[in-house]
Amino acid sequence: MRTLVGTIMTNNKEKNIYCKASKVTEAQIKVIRNTSQPELEEIGFTFIRLISLDYPDIKAQAVFFEGHLDEMSRALKDLQKYT
Questions:
Q1: Is the dihedral of CA 64, 79, 73, 20 positive or negative?
Q2: Most CB atoms within 10 A, among 22, 29, 41, 50?
Q3: pLDDT of amino acid 17
Q4: Rounded to an integer, what distance in angstroms lies between the CA atom of residue 5 and that of residue 75?
Q5: What are the two backbone dihedrals, phi and then psi, of residue 23, each rounded to the nearest 5 degrees?
Q6: Is residue 83 pLDDT above 70, yes or no?
Q7: What region, left, alpha or beta, does residue 14 occupy, with left being phi > 0 and alpha being psi -120 to 50 degrees?
Q8: pTM for the complete prediction?
Q9: CA angle at residue 60 from 68 to 66, to 5 degrees?
Q10: In three state form, how does the secondary structure of the chain look?
């Protein structure tokens, strides 16, 4: 099962802007925002690059968790314990 967590768009100042899915809490997205992509991938997150045929300069990614939402919550809580 793959769960959509949200999307990340990078603006022209190279700052990431996060948009969370409706079932993801602000606290969860904050942990995701403050954790590196390789660390998140280690615990089960997948990042898929998004493209636009109309706007080739768009930099965006969809963020998924390879499991259910409750599993993601546990993984993020465990991650917080070690940081």
A1: negative
A2: 29
A3: 95
A4: 13
A5: -90, -5
A6: no
A7: left
A8: 0.88
A9: 15
A10: CCEEEEEEEECCCCCEEEEECCCCCHHHHHHHHCCCHHHHHHCCEEEEEECCCCCCCCEEEEEEECCCHHHHHHHHHHHHHHC
